Amino acid sequence: MGHHHHHQHHHDAPYADEAVPDTELRPGDLARRRFLQRLGLVGAAATGVGMLATPASAGQGHRPHTPDPRRLRWLAGDHHVHTQSSYDAMHTVAQQVTAGRGNGLDWMVITDHGHVAHEKFAVEQTYADVLKARRANPRMLLWQGLEWNVPSGEHATVFFDAARDELAALRAFEKLFDGNINGTNHTSPENEATALAGLRWMSGQIDRGVIDSALMIANHPSRNGRYSPHEFRNYRDTAPHIAVGMEGSPGAQNDGGHRGGYGNAPGTDSWNGWPSESYRTFGGFDWMTARLGGLWDAMLAEGRGWWITSNSDIHSANGSTLTSPTVPDGWYDAHGRYPDPVDTGVPQRYADFWPGQFSRTVVGAATHDFRGVMDAIRQGRVWVAMGGLLDDLDVQVHGEGGGHPATLGGRVTVRRGANVTVRITARLATRPNAVGDIPRLARLDLIRGAVTGRAADRDGFTNPQVSVVESFTPRRHETVLRVEHRFRNVREPFYLRLRGTDGKRSNGLEPMMDVQGAAAPWDDLWCYANPVFVDVR
After folding, report:
1. CA-CA-CA-CA torsion for 45, 47, 53, 58, nearest 10 degrees?
2. What's the pTM value of the predicted model, to 2 decimals?
3. Residue 499: phi, psi to the nearest 5?
4. Nearest 10 degrees: CA dihedral of 509, 511, 515, 516?
5. What are the DSSP calls for 327-351, one per residue?
């Protein structure tokens, strides 16, 4: 079980450096260069490989404009959706988009698995389907992304806002940096360096104007123990405008009572610092997010964003009457996608919910467009909820001394000794969810965590200075919960964040570990919001 080094490495990519003649390249590197040349993506700048581990340009050119939170549009979406172009999924792009729209989603990302056959055949086929779905659903913001097999890590959503050719950039990224394609999945220092080179490559594309922006979100982070704390810190340091966070709760919440497929034990590629309970979900949320003072809080203690999301990770929708057609062995490898699913007329039991049916990621966008959603995720203006537990959430944090308030992902700065006021408006569910229940928020917790600066231990995953400072309980027939909390005489920087529950399963205030083989997702609903930082001068 590796993952013990702490140093960042520069990735050697001679195929991308035009100063290296063709004759000095190994055959595989020469093929990579030819591929990039065909796409018009060659040169050291094209790969970003020549850039520093923490590219100055990446940090500077992407200083976000902070919009007034009172003018935001809150748009619900799903960044982890599979289609028939994944080796283990079946629905068409059109079926996924129709379902997402029907469940009230405003944006979606198609994220088929990185795979040799996917890169070879499916990228173009899927793109044609995406363009068709965009035309048929003009209000739905639809991306074609990728579920990246992160070298030395696990899976991650990657997607671009492309200035010119999103297809070429996506294909090039998958071919150059996907662990399945390049045999870099296993845990090693060299493969960790390849993942960072992939982030620098995307950063380089942004600097060249080939793509406008890119995002990476780590998927089901604790499921197999593959991500180590230092890898998350390295991703964020290398490309803070691209590697922005992780799934707070995984998809596949109907997975045979395992919620997200979290029924595993450490393997040969797992980081050996994780405790056994980290391989389980708590109220359907990943242990890194659900554990008070755990990995998420340790990242936030550094005073920088590391945001959480939620999604369906849909491969096959539970209750759907569709099933995969029977195909000969080797079909996927030869075609990069399966034929359209066939209708059996009989509801099937599957591990996944349709996009937006159970989990939602709601983002505060300044504009209703691709850039608006990506900027909202990048800046942490995100809250997530399961099972329709909340209709709407508004958080405004006011520091003494004026200025407009901060909302999720934002920051306020106050003088030492000043007060900070948090105003929360939560609109409770009034309509039945997908199983016919009107869920009831039993409690909303306001959590405070200390900001202590950069971690001395890159593999540290605790923040002991975290606590629930106040819990709010809606009155019996209340449909809008309006509450306020004042932090008085603030002396040190901190962050605050929210979480809520239907209260059906908890250990005191804390979520309980889901019961293996018997988890009932609709009977244990939670919501979480990203933090607001308070800086003290």
Report:
1. 60
2. 0.90
3. -145, 150
4. -160
5. --TTHHHHHSSPPPPEE-SS----S
> What pLDDT score was predicted for residue 36?
72
Close Cβ partners of 501 (under 8 Å, ≥ 6 residues apart) = 283, 389, 441, 442, 443, 511, 525, 526, 527
- Phi, then psi, of 104 in degrees rounded to 5: 85, 20
The predicted pLDDT at position 445 comes to 98
Residue-number span of the structural domain to which 33 is assigned: 14-50
User: What is the chain's mean pLDDT, rounded?
Assistant: 91
For 57-188, where are the E strands, in sequence order?
73-81, 107-110, 141-144, 146-149, 155-162
In a domain, 121, yes or no: no
For the chain, count helices (H), then strands (E): 14, 25
CA neighbours within 13 Å on the CB side: how many for 515?
Answer: 8
- Could you give the angle at the alpha carbon of 260 between the alpha carbons of 255 and 266, nearest 5°? 115
Between 166-177 and 189-208, two packed helices, what is the crossing angle to 10 degrees? 160
Measured distance CA(230)–CA(471) in Å, rounded: 33
Token pair in block for residue 255: 């997975």
Residue type, 22: D
Hey, what are 449's tokens? 């965590």
Residue 203, domain member (yes or no): no
CA 227 to CA 154: how far, in whole Å?
6
DSSP state of 256: T
Rounded Cα distance, 463 and 444, in Å: 21
With residue 502 as reference, give the H or E element that holds it: none
CB 536 within 8 A of CB 399: no
- At position 320, the amino acid (one-letter code) is S
Phi, psi of 136 (to 5 degrees): -75, -20
CATH of the domain at 510: 2.60.40
pLDDT in tens, 284-328: 999 999 999 999 999 999 999 999 999 999 999 999 999 999 999
Contacts of 1 (CB under 8 A, 6+ apart): 187, 266, 268, 269, 270, 271, 272
CA–CA distance, 533 with 329 (Å, rounded to integer): 53
Q: How many domains does the chain have?
A: 2
Residue 266 · residue 223 · CB < 8 Å: no
Tell me the C-alpha distance between 373 and 77, whole Å: 9
The answer as to whether 172 is a domain residue is no
Query: Is residue 145 in some structural domain?
Result: no
Q: In Å, how far from its chain's centre is CA 210?
A: 23
Gap between the Cα atoms of 202 and 210, Å rounded: 9
* The token pair that represents 17 in the structure block: 């450096």
pLDDT band (50, 70, 90) for residue 40: low
Tell me which amino acid residue 207 is. D
